[in-house]
Protein backbone atom coordinates (compact mmCIF):
# COMPACT_ATOMS: atom_id res chain seq x y z
CA UNK A 1 0.00 0.00 0.00
CA UNK A 2 1.55 3.26 -1.07
CA UNK A 3 1.32 6.39 1.02
CA UNK A 4 -0.68 8.07 -1.78
CA UNK A 5 -3.26 5.24 -1.79
CA UNK A 6 -3.50 5.35 1.99
CA UNK A 7 -4.06 9.13 1.89
CA UNK A 8 -6.67 8.77 -0.88
CA UNK A 9 -8.65 6.26 1.17
CA UNK A 10 -8.45 8.62 4.17
CA UNK A 11 -9.66 11.53 2.04
CA UNK A 12 -12.53 9.42 0.65
CA UNK A 13 -13.53 8.46 4.20
CA UNK A 14 -13.43 12.08 5.39
CA UNK A 15 -15.47 13.16 2.37
CA UNK A 16 -18.10 10.50 3.05
CA UNK A 17 -18.39 11.67 6.66
CA UNK A 18 -18.60 15.37 5.74
CA UNK A 19 -21.19 14.79 3.00
CA UNK A 20 -23.22 12.41 5.19
CA UNK A 21 -22.85 9.48 2.79
CA UNK A 22 -23.54 7.06 5.60
CA UNK A 23 -23.70 4.00 3.35
CA UNK A 24 -20.07 4.59 2.33
CA UNK A 25 -18.64 5.41 5.76
CA UNK A 26 -18.54 1.85 7.14
CA UNK A 27 -17.01 0.41 3.98
CA UNK A 28 -14.39 3.15 3.76
CA UNK A 29 -13.54 2.88 7.47
CA UNK A 30 -12.87 -0.83 7.01
CA UNK A 31 -10.82 -0.14 3.90
CA UNK A 32 -8.86 2.55 5.77
CA UNK A 33 -8.08 0.16 8.64
CA UNK A 34 -7.06 -2.59 6.20
CA UNK A 35 -4.76 -0.13 4.42
CA UNK A 36 -3.21 0.86 7.75
CA UNK A 37 -2.64 -2.78 8.64
CA UNK A 38 -1.03 -3.42 5.25
CA UNK A 39 1.21 -0.39 5.74
CA UNK A 40 2.29 -1.46 9.23
CA UNK A 41 2.70 -5.18 8.58
CA UNK A 42 6.12 -5.06 6.87
CA UNK A 43 7.56 -2.86 9.62
CA UNK A 44 9.45 -4.59 12.44
CA UNK A 45 7.83 -4.75 15.89
CA UNK A 46 8.74 -1.72 17.95
CA UNK A 47 9.29 0.49 14.88
CA UNK A 48 8.06 4.01 15.73
CA UNK A 49 6.36 4.19 12.33
CA UNK A 50 3.95 1.44 13.45
CA UNK A 51 2.93 3.51 16.47
CA UNK A 52 2.50 6.56 14.24
CA UNK A 53 0.21 4.63 11.87
CA UNK A 54 -1.86 3.40 14.82
CA UNK A 55 -2.09 6.91 16.28
CA UNK A 56 -3.16 8.32 12.92
CA UNK A 57 -5.86 5.66 12.43
CA UNK A 58 -7.21 6.32 15.92
CA UNK A 59 -7.22 10.08 15.26
CA UNK A 60 -9.09 9.75 11.93
CA UNK A 61 -11.66 7.31 13.32
CA UNK A 62 -12.27 9.46 16.40
CA UNK A 63 -12.72 12.51 14.14
CA UNK A 64 -15.26 10.55 12.09
CA UNK A 65 -17.12 9.41 15.19
CA UNK A 66 -17.31 12.97 16.48
CA UNK A 67 -18.50 14.37 13.14
CA UNK A 68 -21.17 11.69 12.79
CA UNK A 69 -22.34 12.38 16.35
CA UNK A 70 -22.65 16.08 15.54
CA UNK A 71 -24.56 15.29 12.32
CA UNK A 72 -26.95 13.03 14.23
CA UNK A 73 -27.54 15.75 16.82
CA UNK A 74 -28.26 18.27 14.05
CA UNK A 75 -30.71 15.86 12.40
CA UNK A 76 -32.44 15.21 15.73
CA UNK A 77 -32.76 18.96 16.30
CA UNK A 78 -34.31 19.42 12.85
CA UNK A 79 -36.80 16.64 13.55
CA UNK A 80 -37.75 18.20 16.89
CA UNK A 81 -38.51 21.49 15.11
CA UNK A 82 -40.81 19.96 12.46
CA UNK A 83 -44.07 20.09 14.46
CA UNK A 84 -43.42 23.73 15.33
CA UNK A 85 -42.62 24.68 11.73
CA UNK A 86 -45.61 22.83 10.30
CA UNK A 87 -47.88 24.78 12.60
CA UNK A 88 -46.92 27.99 10.77
CA UNK A 89 -46.48 26.88 7.19
CA UNK A 90 -47.67 23.42 6.46
CA UNK A 91 -44.74 22.04 4.53
CA UNK A 92 -42.04 24.43 5.65
CA UNK A 93 -38.61 22.83 5.37
CA UNK A 94 -36.28 23.36 8.32
CA UNK A 95 -32.96 24.97 7.43
CA UNK A 96 -30.36 22.39 6.47
CA UNK A 97 -27.36 22.41 8.75
CA UNK A 98 -24.04 22.91 7.07
CA UNK A 99 -20.89 21.39 8.46
CA UNK A 100 -17.49 21.90 6.96
CA UNK A 101 -14.28 20.94 8.61
CA UNK A 102 -10.79 20.84 7.26
CA UNK A 103 -9.16 17.47 7.79
Q: End-to-end distance, in Å?
A: 21 Å
Shape field: elongated
Proportion of helical residues: over 70%
Flag low-confidence runs: none
- Integer average pLDDT: 86
| Topology, number of strands | 0
Structural class: mainly alpha
Helices and strands, in order, run as: HHH
Explained architecture:
By secondary structure, this protein is mostly helical. The chain is built from three helices and no strands. The protein is elongated and about 65 Å long. The mean pLDDT is 86.
Task: Describe what is shown at a glance.
The protein has 103 residues and is an all-alpha fold.
Q: Secondary-structure blueprint of this entry?
A:
Layout: H1 3-18, H2 22-40, H3 48-89
Helix pairs in contact: 1-2, 1-3, 2-3
Offer a few descriptive terms.
mainly alpha, 3 helices, 103 residues
Amino acid sequence: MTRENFKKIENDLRSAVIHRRYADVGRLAQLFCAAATASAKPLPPGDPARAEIARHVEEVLEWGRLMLSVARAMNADELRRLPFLRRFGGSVEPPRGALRLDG
